[in-house]
Structures are given as C-alpha cells and as structure tokens.
Amino acid sequence: MERLFDPPEEEPVDEPLDGPLAARMRPRRLDEFVGQEHLLGEGSALRASLEAGAPHSMVLYGPPGTGKTTLARLAAEHASAAFEELSAVNAGRAEVREVIARATERKRGGRATIFFLDEIHRFNKAQQDALLPAVEEGLISLIGATTENPYFEVNSALLSRVQLFELHPLDISELERVVGRGEAALGVQLSPEIRELIAARAGGDARSALTILEVAAQTAGGAAVTESHVEDAARKRPLLYDKGGDAHYDFISAFIKSMRGSDPDAAVYYLASMLEGGEDPRFIARRMVVLASEDIGNADPQALLVATAAAHAVEYVGLPEARLNLSQAAIYLALAPKSNASYIAIKEATQDVREGGNVRPPKELRDASYRGAKKLGHGAGYIYPHDDPAGFEVDYLPEELKGKKYYRP
Asked: Please, what CATH class does the domain formed by 21-166 belong to?
C-alpha cells in the first residue's frame, strides 16, 4: 500500500498559490484561525500547549470544514516539529510503522514528530493498537481527526492516552469573516447581504464557504456577485447527516424530545432534516408509534392511531409523498396532551417480575374451563363483575402484591 506522500524533513510545505481558494486561505498562524473559541480562547489548555510548542497527543472530532487539519498543521508549525500526514482511508499498519521508525530516528537527533492521521475512525482495532506504544513512549504526538463520534469509533485504550477536543460548526458571523478574507484574496467586493448568504449556505463549513465564494465569483466573471450566482454555486445544501452515524442518533433524539416537549416547529424541522439526509422513513415512523404510547398514552388514545396510520402510510405511499403523512402525525403528537403513566406502569411491573418472579395469579382467577379444574380450586370465589358490581372492587393482584399501584393517571 502506497503512502499518500513522503513527509518533509523540514517545515511543512505551504499550500500551492494556484490551488483552490480554500487551500490558499488555510491559516498559517494561530491568530488567523477563525472559530472554536471554546478550545482556542486566551488561556485555554489547547492554545497554551500550541503556543508553547508542546502539543499533547489528541483527537480532533467535528464536522468537515471546522479546522481539524489546520490545527494539526499549526501544531507542527509552533513546535518546529516534523509533520507526518496519512489518511486512514489509504494507509495501513505498514505505513504507520514507517512513520514511527522515522520518528524514532528524529528523536535520537532531538527533533519531535507530529503525526496527523486523518479519518482515524477508519482504522480497525489492530491498526489503532499499533499506535499505542509510540504515543505512550512519546515518540510521536498523535493528532487524529474524525467526523465520527470517537467514543464509538476509537479504541478506549487509545482514547485514554490522548486529549479529546470537539470542534463545532462555524456560526454565521465566523463564516462571514472567512468569506471576507476570501474576498480580499480574490479581489472582489461583496455586499453584506451576499456575504451573509454565502455564510448561510455553507452550513458551518469554512471550506464550503470559500468554495461557494470562488465559484460564484468565477460565474460572475468580474461583475458584481448576485444572489443567483451564490445559489448556483451552492446547488447542493450541506447536510451534516450520516444515517449510519452520530447524526442518525442525534436527530432522532432531538425529534422525539421536541414532540415530547410539545414543540411542533422543532419536530417538523428535525423530521425534514432526517428525510433530506436520507433517513429511512420507516425508522422515523416506528419511533413515533413508540412515542404515542410512551409519552402520550391514555391522555389522548387517538395519538397511537394517528402514529400507526402514519406508519402504514409510509409503507403504502412511500416517499416523497409520505413526508406529508409523517409531518401531520408529528405535529399531532407534538400538540397532544402528554402522559407517561402507561410507560411507568409497565416499567415498574416489569421490574417486580424480574426481581420477584412471575407470581401465580390467585386461584379464583386461574383457568377453570377444563375438567378437574374445580377440584384444584380454580375459579372458586370469582365474582363476575357484570352480574355483581362488587367484582369491580376486587384487587386482582397476587396476594404478595395486593395494594400495589402501577398505573397512576
């Protein structure tokens, strides 16, 4: 397997001057970095370690275009360290061993090595384990980058040896600063409205913002960049949604909690995000059926009918039309009165069964339909409620559980 490139023995090579705008605008100094103030604010641990030229091994976790690769390169610049870079998409254990061998030689000469491993989540357990000794012995400062939740994708043994930093999508004002720098590099002047539009269309991704700017400016051909130029350059909205990863769980969680909290607007937004991201509508419908009983229950029994009807509509109609059925049901569930009494009842009853076993029903409630049942005392003393209203006043629980209340409306 071939390495992505032979890493330089001196300082990292600058980005090409004629490359894409996003590459040309990559920050060369820490004070040029935009965003992530929660990590790089004055006095923060990460900023202090970078400025001191002594970065710890770390995993940078966040969506695309938030600065993971840039931070790794800045760490190497401040440390005057050799910078090795591999992508876990193309590299394997052999390439990692070669990096570690070179790092060992450098350490003998008194020089540090920063090893940037992009998409570290794509390494399997054995490949990640190969990094452990070098990290532990300080042969390399490992900087792993991932868009996936490291608690799911990175070995706990490796996580315990590194610091974990989560990068957030850039907000509109931060992206406007990025776009402003891009304007200066391209020699164009945008109106504040167009600059804000580009920032909005970038979806928190600085790389995407610069790409949209560059394409829009090229399309304008020297004329003023207009809204139509921006919309044309940003035809595909950035969707930070991976139906097999974090987003799958985060968005369905937000969707459920919005309906539970009676917020129909948020519920519809998260529903639209999931559907546009390619989520399976049957999965969404199943979760709505569960919520109808768990969080609404008998406060509005119609909710379960609405949810199951929506689930049936998904199977019968399919997308894209079934989004209407899902939207209708989501709004109904969000606005319905809420009660988790049915959920609490089955939860507590299940706990009693698991802890005390399934205690047999009293003899008067047992099956008395077969020959010989009466000799065993089955059915004796049973009061038929339709003949005698006293039957509605009986506690039907086993003797050991008499008086227990599971359902509390």
From this structure: alpha beta
